[in-house]
Amino acid sequence: QVQLVESGGDLVQPGGSLRLSCAASGIIFNFYTMGWYRQAPGKQRELVAFITSDGSTKHADSVKGRFTISRDNAKNTVYLQTNSLKPEDTAVYYCNAKAVYSQENYWGKGTLVTVSA
């Protein structure tokens, strides 16, 4: 049974930081590209960042220079370090696992990040 469990979401003031984590089980982690997406109220889900199995990364323009995705293959975990948070970063953040060698695609249930004074 595949599980992606996100954690680390919280209420934070503008300019603050959070580290989101996503622990994966039930998959061969090294064979998956891992991503973070977010969905703000009334908006579509959007890609925040992804990291390939060999560590290549891509970040959305809106978070470049502020957010950093990383992965620890030994711990089957992907992280999203978020710095200089803005109110417009408020959203539910979802973890995604996309298989490199098949069509398998999995989602976590999300963790809420609220940026407000």
Q: Would you mind describing this structure in some detail?
A:
With 117 residues, the protein is mostly beta strands. Helices cover 0% and strands 52% of the residues. The protein contains no helices and eleven strands. It has strands spanning 3-7, 11-12, 18-25, 32-39, 46-51, 57-59, 67-72, 77-82, 91-99, 105-107, 111-115. Strands 2, 4, 5, 6, 9, 10 and 11 form a seven-stranded mixed β-sheet that branches. It has a four-stranded antiparallel β-sheet with strand order 1-3-8-7, with no helix packed on it. It is globular, with a radius of gyration of 13 Å.
Which secondary-structure class do the elements indicate?
A: mainly beta
Instruction: Report the strand count.
Output: 11
Tally of helical runs: 0
* Helix residue percentage: under 10%
Oligomeric grouping of the chains: single chain
Largest sheet: 7 strands, mixed
Order of helices and strands: EEEEEEEEEEE
Mean pLDDT: 97
Radius of gyration: 13 Å
Range of strand content: over 45%
Shape: globular
